Amino acid sequence: MPLIASLKLVCFVLPGLLLPVSYPPARAETPAPPESFDVLSREAQAARESGRVDEAVDLYRRALAVRGDWDEGWWYFGTLHYEAGRGKEARQAFARFVELKPDSGPGFTLLGLSTFLAGDHAAAIEEIQKGLELGVGGNAELLRAGRHQLALAFVKTGQFERAVQPFTQLARTSPEAPWLLDAIGLMVLRSAALPSEVPQERRELVRLAGRAGYLHLSLHAEEAGKAYDALVAAHPNEPWVHYAHAVFLLRSDSERALAELRRELEVKPDNVMAHLEIAFELILRGENSAARPFAERAAALAPGLFAARNAKGRVLVELGELETGILELEEAVRLAPESPEVHFALARAYSKAGRAEDAARERDTFARLDRERREKRASQAGPRTEAARP
After folding, report:
1. Is residue 26 situated within a structural domain?
2. Does residue 365 come out as left (phi exceeding 0), alpha (psi in the -120 to 50 range) or beta?
3. Claim to verify: residue 152 and residue 168 sit in the same structural domain
4. 115: pLDDT confidence band, cut at 50, 70 and 90?
5. 377 and 333 assigned to the same domain
6. Is residue 275 part of a domain?
7. Fewest CB atoms within 10 Å of the CB: 251, 322, 349, 353?
8. Strand, helix or coil for residue 6
9. Distance CA 226, CA 245 (A)
């Protein structure tokens, strides 16, 4: 059953849809009598329900030209375009719909799905997120579609860490299926593409990576371990394969995880995330001297990544280089002011440096941000991201 066919109108609307403009004729003619909205709306509904799509689209267009604030009409006008694969037209219609119904979660979600279909993946992220935050009225199919397209939009725009949460929600609520495995596989391999864009020669690799990632996210640890072993054995020289395996191993076998991370750096020496994971694991063990080169390398490779500046700053502080370490942590706070962890690390550094007032301020900020994050997680029941630990 098509996605839209399963939806019931929940009242939601979007920014203005541009309808064709009627220019005056070159010569005076007797104006046609205005069309009856009641007649047009009834005929549009009948055409839609009987599957006469082109006729229904035309009738909805004409009815909306008579009464532009007809939210139900914009909804069905949008759904007809969406199901026909016309993303631009659907986006315009749902934009008008959410303009009329600004609190409609389904409306914003369909707006985002239409925007995704139109090819604007960055804009789709904001719209789908707003729709899901507002809620989709218990419509499981729309919720699944929203999470799926949101995760793919993150992948397509290279925001792989942000894709983890919606993919985790999907993996824990959806059976193993090609559409989900291929999408997760692209995230695991850090490939900024859509499944339809994967070349034939890489499809087997993407599917293998996706199955391992799916089993990992869906908490099937034993099966995931076997799937990662198979992935590594089949593609030992593929970037990100050893990294993904290491992230899976970190909670259960840190020694093997570190070995996999070092193997990843042999394959991809500039892998910032592998450097970071090694640094954080060694920091947790108190092995700050060993962690230093990995943290410094990560910061050199990605100076604008707050986690890299956080790792470097923490290492330097623990090694007694307080002034330089504090500067790194202050830069991490500047880059990610909403991260509780960097405020906590900075508070510890200030305390070590005898800056009691600054330390108290950072502790208060940490407590507030940590509380807000816990409350948000509780309300969303969202999973924990396992990569790039602070």
Report:
1. no
2. alpha
3. no
4. very high
5. yes
6. no
7. 251
8. helix
9. 10
Do both 239 and 197 map to the same domain? yes
Please give the tally of structural domains in the chain: 3
Q: What is the mean pLDDT of the chain?
A: 91
For every residue of 79-108, DSSP letters joined together read: HHHHHTT-HHHHHHHHHHHHHH-TT-HHHH
Long-range contacts, 122-128 (Cβ 8 Å, 24+): 122/153, 122/157, 124/149, 124/150, 124/153, 125/150, 125/153, 125/154, 125/157, 125/159, 128/153
pLDDT score, position 378: 76
Q: Are residues 53 and 92 in the same domain?
A: yes
The model carries a pTM of 0.85
Provide the pLDDT for residue 31: 52
Could you report the per-residue pLDDT of 161-189, keeping only the tens digit for each? 999 999 999 999 999 999 999 999 999 99
pLDDT at site 5: 45
Q: How far apart are CA 122 and CA 116, in angstroms?
A: 8
Residue 25, in any domain of the structure: no
Confidence of residue 1 (pLDDT cuts 50, 70, 90): very low
Q: Which amino acid is at 327?
A: L
Check whether residue 295 and residue 259 sit in a common domain: no
Helical H segments across the chain, by residue range:
37-49, 53-66, 71-83, 87-100, 105-117, 121-134, 140-156, 160-171, 178-188, 203-217, 221-234, 241-249, 254-267, 272-284, 288-301, 306-318, 322-335, 340-352, 356-380
Residue 30 lies in a domain: no
295: containing domain: 287-390
